[in-house]
Specification:
18% strand; globular; 2 domains; Rossmann fold; 12 strands; alpha/beta; 334 residues; Glycosyltransferase family 9 protein
Length: 334
């Protein structure tokens, strides 16, 4: 099937922040293929906000598998095509109820295929995540060479971030954001704090005017406090102080972002920030790193993928390559 340019299309993508952001090139490609159509996107209630204000989404909403069980049984909005990322049966059933034609990836439980009109083979494990997401639109004849992810800060959010910077008297200083931790279920992605400390020491030796803002949720606050103890005049703690969107707006105020592989790092890429991102060998940058982003520098764990395990220590990433990448970007942005 090829997508009709007048079609009403539904995309269901209930996932984490990073996977939500990584699907934005697919959403943009779909909307470009619908010059006279309409694109609705439903995502996870806690993560769908990352898609707010994107010009290629006509309607944005939230859904969960439990909520999907109760939706679509009565007359209401209907779609010509529904694309479903993931394999939750309630979401697949909902798509079947509200769309005339459904598309999704091959399911581990092949009984789920009865709710799909078109089953798309899962791309190979070495396929970049952005291109994996593009496989569903491609099944409808939608192609694109634009692989850069997207995020838009609202004007009110930008003003709040500017006021925060002024309130902390950080204006006219080179601001470097640090994302020191991934989420709790994948702590093996974290770069040790002593490495961050050494990096900060080197960067401050080059330019004492530099100031670090430690980003992240409240769980990162103990690490942020430890960094502030080392550099009391050069660290401001922002952990747990902002919701997802205001955190992104603050990131837009940075001269440079340095972080481990986690949701905010994907947001930094989507914002087009100068950035250095560190990747564990189980999640290499060739799969999860930014694409078509000229101001992104990625540092991968040196272990070959075949020898990589969950307990492979991120401390094996030395400070020198991170410092070199950061220094290069700071010089470019002067």
């Amino acid at each position: 099937m090829r997508l009709d340019p007048h079609a009403k299309v539904l995309v269901i993508n209930v996932c984490r922040i990073g996977d939500t952001v990584l699907a934005t090139p697919a959403l943009q490609a779909l909307r470009r293929a619908l010059p006279h159509g309409h694109l609705t996107v439903l995502g996870h209630p806690k993560r769908v906000a990352v898609l707010q204000n994107l010009p290629f989404i006509d309607q944005l909403g939230a859904i969960t598998p439990s909520r999907a069980r109760w939706l679509g049984h009565f007359p209401g909005q209907r779609y010509d095509v529904a694309l479903v990322y993931g394999g939750d049966a309630p979401l697949l059933k909902f798509a079947r109820r509200v769309a005339r034609y459904t598309v999704g990836f091959e399911q581990e439980d092949h009984r789920h295929h009865r709710w799909l009109d078109q089953v798309v083979s899962v791309p190979g494990a070495d396929t970049p995540a952005v291109k994996q997401a593009l496989a569903l639109p491609a099944a409808l004849g939608v192609q694109t060479e634009r692989l850069r992810t997207r995020y838009e800060v609202l004007p009110a959010e930008a003003r709040r971030a500017e006021r925060w910077v002024l309130r902390h008297r950080l204006q006219n200083r080179p601001l470097i954001g640090l994302q020191v931790a991934s989420f709790p279920t994948k702590p093996y992605r974290d770069w040790p704090l002593h490495r961050f400390t050494e990096l900060m020491d080197w960067l401050l030796e080059d330019d004492p005017r530099r100031h670090f803002i430690v980003l992240g949720d409240a769980l990162s606050t103990p690490r942020a406090r430890e960094l502030k103890q080392h550099f009391p005049e050069h660290v401001t703690i922002a952990t747990g102080a902002f919701n997802l969107r205001d955190n992104a707006a603050l990131m837009q105020q940075l001269s440079l972002y340095i972080g481990v592989d986690t949701g905010p790092t994907h947001l930094a890429a989507a914002l087009g920030l100068p950035m250095v991102a560190l990747y564990h060998c189980l999640h290499p940058s060739r799969i999860y790193g930014p694409m078509q982003h000229p101001l992104a520098r990625t540092i991968d764990h040196p272990a070959p993928h075949g020898r990589c395990r969950v307990d492979t220590d991120m401390s094996e990433i030395m400070v020198a390559p991170v410092y070199q990448a950061a220094t290069e970007l700071l010089r470019v942005m002067q």
